[in-house]
UniProtKB/TrEMBL annotation:
<protein>
    <recommendedName>
        <fullName>Peptidoglycan hydrolase-like protein with peptidoglycan-binding domain</fullName>
    </recommendedName>
</protein>
<feature type="domain" description="Peptidoglycan binding-like">
    <location>
        <begin position="205"/>
        <end position="259"/>
    </location>
</feature>
<dbReference type="InterPro" id="IPR002477">
    <property type="entry name" value="Peptidoglycan-bd-like"/>
</dbReference>
<dbReference type="InterPro" id="IPR058593">
    <property type="entry name" value="ARB_07466-like_C"/>
</dbReference>
<dbReference type="InterPro" id="IPR036366">
    <property type="entry name" value="PGBDSf"/>
</dbReference>
<feature type="signal peptide">
    <location>
        <begin position="1"/>
        <end position="30"/>
    </location>
</feature>
<feature type="domain" description="Peptidoglycan binding-like">
    <location>
        <begin position="268"/>
        <end position="323"/>
    </location>
</feature>
<dbReference type="InterPro" id="IPR036365">
    <property type="entry name" value="PGBD-like_sf"/>
</dbReference>
<dbReference type="Pfam" id="PF01471">
    <property type="entry name" value="PG_binding_1"/>
</dbReference>
<keyword id="KW-0732">Signal</keyword>
<feature type="domain" description="ARB-07466-like C-terminal">
    <location>
        <begin position="58"/>
        <end position="171"/>
    </location>
</feature>
<dbReference type="Pfam" id="PF26571">
    <property type="entry name" value="VldE"/>
</dbReference>
Length: 328
């Protein structure tokens, strides 16, 4: 049984939205969420810790994951987080640490979306950690289309689900208490404030040029002069409020993350200019023409190789983060 979703988007703090919005820059085509750059430190597989109390308030980690999934797959829906205390069953929904993602298992496109997100959750990361994103998010178990994956029985992989509801109209995610409270590394370890320059009125330099190009890519019409003045501040506020974020005119990690747009060979425009300016700050020597051709591609692969990243020539959020951090 499903209950009406409780939509409390206002309850999502700016910080909560940070990682979710990383994926907003990615086209709506089938692309899994972007994984931030993490170190080797990772959470263990969540132990089984079922609902014991009733506190039907959506928890921040649950909200954050919902935001991540819905931003990545905007055609999919929300079947709710909280469930009333009067419900008879034991369910983490009653503690606001479970989410039902509306997915029709009988629709192949929908099924593919779910398969993609689940594969992303359970993939091994660059450090060799199995089920890395599921662990970082504190996912305790997942039920979909007659199968269950549980972190506490991870070695068994996907198993047949024997509960009465086969979960063919939604994917159920339960979170550990730490995951629900955003105490897991997805929420705590990707935040690298030192590598996200904080820009506000009065700032100047190459980083401001990158910012201005990215704002233009988001629809603003700034003159790119590398000077964070009144016009740039107004553009930042406008961009922030359009995204429902706190409109403080200050560019920190949240705003940077929302501004980043993935660019690759063949792309054109201000986001490409931003990447070219940032690459030049690392010595690329590109003409800033907004056209992502072979020279830009070569500069990106060279930058990636120098930073031990897969040299695929795509400026994804992880590359953006390193580029912006590298401007200094
Ligand atoms: Zn559920």
């Amino acid at each position: 049984m499903r209950f009406a979703p409780v939509l409390r988007r206002g309850a999502v703090t700016a910080a909560a939205a940070t990682l979710a919005v990383l994926v907003a820059a990615v086209p709506a085509a089938a692309v899994p969420p972007t994984t931030p750059v993490f170190g080797a430190t990772i959470d263990g597989h969540a132990a089984y810790d079922p609902q014991t109390t009733c506190d039907p308030v959506a928890k921040p980690g649950t909200l954050g994951f919902r935001e991540l999934a819905l931003r990545t797959y905007p055609t999919t829906g929300d079947s709710g987080i909280v469930r009333a205390c009067s419900a008879a069953e034991v369910t983490e929904h009653k503690e606001g640490r479970a989410w039902d993602w509306t997915i029709n298992a009988n629709n192949s496109a929908d099924h593919a979306r779910a398969d993609e997100l689940l594969a992303w959750l359970l993939a091994t990361d660059a450090h060799g950690n199995q089920h890395a994103n599921a662990r970082r998010l504190g996912i305790m178990y997942i039920i979909f289309d007659g199968r269950i994956w549980a972190s506490y029985r991870a070695s068994e992989g996907w198993r047949t689900y024997t509960g009465s509801n086969p979960h063919t109209d939604h994917v159920h995610f339960s979170f550990s208490r730490a995951g629900a409270l955003k105490q897991t590394t997805w929420w705590t370890a990707a935040d690298q404030p030192a590598s996200w320059p904080r820009l506000e009125r009065g700032a100047s330099g190459v980083t401001v040029q990158v910012l201005q190009h990215l704002l233009n890519a988001a629809g603003q019409t700034l003159t790119v002069d590398g000077s964070f003045g009144a016009a740039t501040e107004a553009a930042v506020r406008s961009f922030q409020s359009a995204g429902g974020a706190v409109s403080d005119g200050i560019v920190g990690m949240v705003t940077w993350s929302r501004l980043l747009r993935q660019v690759r060979t063949g792309d054109q425009g201000s986001a490409v200019r931003a990447a070219q300016v940032a690459l030049n700050a690392s010595g690329a020597g590109l003409t800033v023409d907004g056209s992502f051709g072979p020279a830009t591609q070569a500069a990106v692969t060279s930058f990636q190789s120098a930073h031990d990243r897969p040299a695929n020539g795509v400026v994804d959020p992880a590359v953006w983060q390193m580029l912006i951090a590298g401007i200094g």
